[in-house]
Design goal:
By secondary structure, this protein is of the alpha/beta class. It contains 14 helices and 11 strands. It has a 9-stranded mixed sheet with strand order 3-2-4-7-1-8-11-10-9, with helices on both faces. A two-stranded antiparallel sheet has the order 5-6. β5 and β6 form a beta hairpin. α1 packs across α3, α4 crosses α14 and α6 packs across α11. The chain is globular and about 55 Å long. The protein starts with a strand and ends with a strand.
Length: 396
């Protein structure tokens, strides 16, 4: 038995600020994925919901919430919360059920109705919660962290705000071609530079918004796919959800301190790089095989870091890739051909699923004007609070 499972269907609800609850968005995405797969809802063996902590009790039991909204039919349910990696862990859970023989075909759904402004911890006093502490003790919002990370790249590698702006320009050009994106207008580097400073050196157009949105996948065993008439489906070949290794020498939210490396050597790879290495190893692939990638561009500077973690270039060389057009549509390895968070905004439990939706369309050759020619291997990557991160390899 291989670790491959089939992607039979992919569906999304457009990103934006729509004023509705997350369940509505998730049901629309789920029905779109079922229709794309040609699978009747009553045939689904299992529903895995990626949780939204902002959805109250229904969000905490997202699997059952979506199953109920679609109509009880006896499927098993699972609910997963892993911050920004929730969607990928939901995919990994579905894959485990399929490979274990517990389910033939599984529906994975993630949806969110995000607050206006930046994300903040829930109310109440929780002195043992590092996310609560960094707001209470430091007042450190997410954009403050993004700004610190950008400054670190500038100090270590010589990156400039002009380099960061090129990432936004690239992603906005791709997002303008994506009907599911919230922001569908191309921007220039001059417009990025003229936008207000949010967290020096990053400006408003360097940082992603918070959005409503949803994404869903219908996943199955390879045998079910063949019986269903799909002899050569897009496949998920690896899901990596590792935790960091001690010592952590680079600050990552929500922690407000790093580990000392005075007596212990740092790990050979950063947390994010280790996620990609594990995924490549599991899929039997490497950076040289990648046709395109979808990464979690919470800020323009963080996208440059992902290029290096993906193995597309060496440390500190990310800015050169974007300057040379390597990661743009038409480049050697397009990154965020969907438009990325720059064009979508962040709908936390849906985002990693949406990344796989984009890779699926690309590997099917069905991405329209965004199509990456000859796409055969796609990889997604993201990182969230509390040591959560993920990488998914999708192949054809």
């Amino acid at each position: 038995m291989t670790g491959d499972i089939a992607v039979l269907g992919a569906g999304m609800h457009p990103w934006g600020k729509w004023g509705h609850g997350f369940v509505r968005y998730g049901v629309i995405a789920a029905r779109a994925a079922l229709a794309d797969a040609g699978v009747d809802w009553r045939r689904i063996d299992s529903v895995v919901g990626a949780n939204t902590v902002r959805g109250g009790y229904p969000g905490q039991v997202a699997g059952a919430t979506f199953a109920r909204a679609l109509g009880w039919q006896g499927a098993r349910v699972t609910s997963v919360y892993a911050a920004c990696a929730s969607g990928a862990q939901a995919i990994g859970t579905a894959r485990s059920q399929i490979l274990a023989g517990q389910s033939d075909v599984v529906l994975v759904v993630g949806a969110d109705a995000a607050p206006k402004g930046f994300f903040a911890p829930a109310g109440g006093d929780r002195p043992d919660d590092p996310d609560w502490l960094r707001f209470r003790v430091l007042g450190a919002t997410n954009p403050a962290y993004f700004g610190l990370y950008a400054r670190r790249r500038m100090a270590l590698h010589g990156d400039t705000p002009d380099d960061f702006a090129l990432v936004k320009v690239k992603n906005a050009a791709a997002g303008a071609l994506n009907p599911y994106a919230r922001y569908r207008t191309a921007v220039s580097a001059a417009e990025v530079a003229a936008s207000p400073v949010v967290a020096d050196p990053l400006r408003l157009l360097d940082i992603c918004a918070t959005s409503d949105g949803a994404a869903a996948l219908v996943l199955s065993s390879m045998e079910f796919a063949r019986r269903h008439g799909s002899a050569s489906p897009v496949r998920i070949s690896a899901v990596s959800t590792l935790t960091p290794a001690y010592p952590r020498t680079v600050l990552d939210l929500p922690d407000i301190a790093t580990d000392s490396a005075a007596a212990v050597d740092p790990p050979p790879r950063s947390f994010r790089a280790s996620l990609l290495t594990a995924a490549y190893d599991e899929a039997g692939a490497g950076p040289e095989d990648v046709s395109l990638a979808e990464v979690y561009d919470l800020s323009t500077a963080l996208e440059l870091e992902w290029y290096e973690d993906l193995g597309l270039c060496g440390p500190g060389e990310g800015a050169k890739l974007v300057r040379d057009g390597v990661t743009a549509l038409g480049g050697r390895v397009p990154v965020n051909a969907s438009g990325g968070l720059a064009s979508f905004g962040e709908a936390v439990p849906a985002q990693a699923i949406a990344q796989v939706c984009e890779l699926t369309r690309q590997l099917r050759g069905a991405a329209g004007e965004r199509q990456v020619a000859g796409a055969r291997v796609g990889v997604s990557a993201n990182q969230g609070l509390f040591g959560h991160g993920s990488a998914v390899v999708v192949t054809r």
